[in-house]
């Protein structure tokens, strides 16, 4: 490896770390703002998409994150007020500080969020769906969760109901999916694959086997997604676990 | 930690996970007792899992790192799963055929799993295959509740015994209702998992409570569950899971995530996460948007309040109010703003608004000292206002409220005590007056024998008194005068009090039965009094005038003779008028009342005239005797008062109560006609300012009634001399009254006549003596 490439990779990993932190911020702020899962995931997706189009350096990632939250609230019909976003963000970035006074500084912050929102929309070309390897549109964020939930429901009926109740597979899968938004995983894989993978990992975590999977003509994950293969699942699992390693680092 | 879950995971992953767990979680005390010692009984499993174990070493590492989260109890305590009925509503989510249909699992496994997982209370659907005398058999082909499985090809039969078939109305044999091939929906009753035998029931009692309203028995093919119909479609078209999912309507439901999330027991408010930094249980409530906004609003509002207080101090009340309102717009529950605004309202005199604000503030912050203090003060102030408006009961409730808020609030306590006394007093007054009226009437109807007896007694007493005291009433009055001039009416003479007491007892005993009604009546009438417009409607006014003129003439004469007594008399008249108002207020219009009053006044004037003449002879009647005189003077006083205040009868009314006070405590001998009004005013003001004194007065008032009674008796005596005279007057008056008011009750006239007659009799007697 030559030094420039080394520098690049270190640069990339630094960026990944920053994005991870900012996504953590989005999620935490989202919970504190009372956002549902879908808008939070949307905000993360918007954030990741924005930084796929533009370099990180000229922008304040937290401002982008706040604007992404604001925009996601609009997209997913759970409108937020900028004042709340500013309050929660300020508190997050300056723990235990008093809420900002509603002075000119506050209004400047508010203006900057609105400006940033417009900028993001321009960067994303105002497109509800835009050119992407997987033809993902903004509302497609729903898909990840929709798929996962329907998979869970189907699986629930096939499983023994007592073992299902005893084992928090659904919660684990849900947590994994939500956590996956810390990275741009959602932009790199189709929603079905992500959904199957988080379900797979959740089942693995609790050592739950899908009944009669060995005897079946088709494994359960292939039922859910025809074009999925075991290596793909393993790959995504690795990427997913990779995200969690960052959790320990920051 | 969930021991069972951990065991399950360990059993699945084998020893590698165990060793990883040991290294990762060795300093976690929760795991110490849970982890089986390394190696151990898990070795046997490892061979079977070896392949997989090597495969997913990363997963195992992941599990071991997150084990404390994955196996924690709190992980499971998410929202309790909503037990779904059999709502297969396609609008909410995509209803999919059973998973095993896509997985193409051999029937043997499916059959085995079916009998493993089926449970009592599950609803199954089948077709009747044969009917026997002990029941019927049905072949199951789909499940409605519990688990959704593909069983159509498994040829599972279930028995529905006769006792579990509800009889259909009049049919003797319940089974005759059913036929081969009928679609039956039934609930699983018994499962023999070993022999793979099922029995079902058509009784609702076999259902689980959440499904209690499901229809059991024969169903039509349209009633078949959606997932079954879909699975038939899939079986024929060989569509993939994904396609079915996309084609179903529910998949497009934007709220599907929320719906299914709750169905699967996922908590949206504190979502699960395997990120250590995102454990929502570690989030501080204070950092949430709602709490922050509240805090921010509160501090913003407080700022406004401060500005407002500054304005207030500068006297810019409007600006201050604007600031307070702004503060409350920002934070509607801001205690400081409410208290400040309440204080401003209070200073502006809007006591009710102030009370409202203080009350809300106290609700928000029950420990707020200023709010409590101000509220009490305002309540008491408002109570005082109401007292002045003569709404005594309302005032009382305000005082009580103040005491409820602060038991130690002395002002309210005092005010309440005073008020209660006042209320009682006023009630008593009404009562007594009513009673007196009654008595007057009664007296007039009294048999002559009784009257005679009384008269005799009186005479005896008078004789004694005469013997005892040579001192005239002048000394009495003079002392009274001094007392009154010293301005404290509370220093009432003891004999007065005694008399009062006596009289009260008497009246109570004699009119106990009427007490209640009269009390109620008196209360209302009192209010009426206070608001009744000046009674100078033309007719009545004229009448009054006539009389007044007459009276005034007389008065003047008398005034020169005995100015000392006038005050008392004045009082008397007021009482008279008031009682009459009360008694007849219901029957007559105000003007009539007044007319009536004037009449009676005139009456009494006349009688008193006689008495006065009497009085010269009667030396030691000082107190008692004075009453007669007083009554004369009273009339005069009232007349003069009228004249002076023709326009303001209200004032006259006001006078009335203080005048009573005067009367009872210290009749002053100042020249009456000119000063009486001033006196009244003085007294009213005093009364208002110092209610405590008023209490004493109240008693005096009561006593007065007695006195009055006595005086009546004496009147009679006195009237001996001028009986004829009086009678004539009375008659004249009676005529006058009847002329003026046709509605004046006839019996009253009769009473007057009787009195007159009686007095005449007496007079003649006396003369004889």
UniProtKB/TrEMBL annotation, chain A:
Q: Which residues form the Cyclin-like domain?
A: 24-122, 146-242
Q: Which InterPro entries match?
A: Cyclin-like_dom, Cyclin-like_sf, Cyclin-Q_first_cyclin_box, Cyclin-Q_second_cyclin_box, Cyclin/Ssn8, Cyclin_N
Biological process annotations from GO? regulation of transcription by RNA polymerase II
Any idea which UniProt keywords this protein has? Cyclin
- List, alphabetically, the CDD domains matched: CYCLIN_CCNM_CCNQ_rpt1 (cd20534), CYCLIN_CCNM_CCNQ_rpt2 (cd20535)
A Pfam family (short name) is Cyclin_N
MF terms (GO), sorted A to Z: cyclin-dependent protein serine/threonine kinase regulator activity
Family membership, please give it. Belongs to the cyclin family. Cyclin-like FAM58 subfamily.
The protein's job, in short, is: May be an activating cyclin for the cyclin-associated kinase CDK10.
Question: Known PANTHER family for this protein?
Answer: CYCLIN (PTHR10026)
Q: What is this protein called?
A: Cyclin-Q
TrEMBL record, chain B:
User: What keyword terms does UniProt attach to this protein?
Assistant: TPR repeat
Question: Could you tell me which residues the TPR repeats occupy?
Answer: 301-334, 335-368
Region entry Disordered, spans: 458-678, 706-741
Keyword Magnesium in annotation: no
- Signal peptide positions (record): none
What SUPFAM superfamilies has UniProt attached to this entry?
Answer: Nucleic acid-binding proteins, TPR-like
> Which PANTHER family would you find in this protein's record?
TETRATRICOPEPTIDE REPEAT PROTEIN 14
What is this protein's record name?
A: Tetratricopeptide repeat protein 14
What species is given as this protein's source?
Answer: Python bivittatus
